[in-house]
Amino acid sequence: MKEKLIDLLFKYKNAFATDKEALGAIIEHGVDIILNVEKPYPPLLIRPAYPASPTAREALEVHIKELIDLGVLRKVGHNQQVEVTTPVIITWNNGKSRMVGYFRALNTYNIPDRYPIPRIHETLTQLSQAKFITAMDALKGFHKNVLKDNAKKLLRIHCGILEYLRMPAYAKMANLHEKIQRKYDYSS
Prior knowledge:
Blueprint: H1 2-11, E1 26-31, H2 54-69, E2 73-77, E3 87-91, E4 97-101, H3 104-108, H4 120-127, E5 145-147, E6 154-157, E7 160-164, H5 176-187
Parallel strand pairs: 1-5
Antiparallel strand pairs: 2-7, 3-4, 6-7
InterPro entries: DNA/RNA_pol_sf (IPR043502), Rev_trsase/Diguanyl_cyclase (IPR043128), RNA-dir_DNA_polymerase (IPR053134)
Organism: Austropuccinia psidii MF-1
Protein name: Reverse transcriptase domain-containing protein
């Protein structure tokens, strides 16, 4: 049994990455973000960059550089109208920072996907007779989902305007869970 597991891990080794390697990409089903509002967007969606301390700016620049290097973001200019607010830096207790976008306003105008997600009870019942259960966390899982061209959203920060090429982390606006469930259901 151990040998079979090791063989499978080596067979699919390209599915695994660390934060220093390139991300995988789910290209077969580009993520679409559909809004129920037309351009020009309401002022609620067009906001200036948040003020940030020098420490927060430095941390933000590190995160932005990493996301540009991974192909999640790209620089697009300085004077464009934007429809998504700037990211916010949240510092953890251990001193590490992470970049989180503020998408509350955009989520207000999102058209939700109503595809059903399985209930946790049903999933646990299906797994109840399993001999082994393995859980793996997808490193930067949101960022593995490529956005369709019409769904790419801009953000404004102190050093310019950037465009998401992949799904922003923690954004609920694209109904990503429903889209992934639909993909699982129709690909088997």
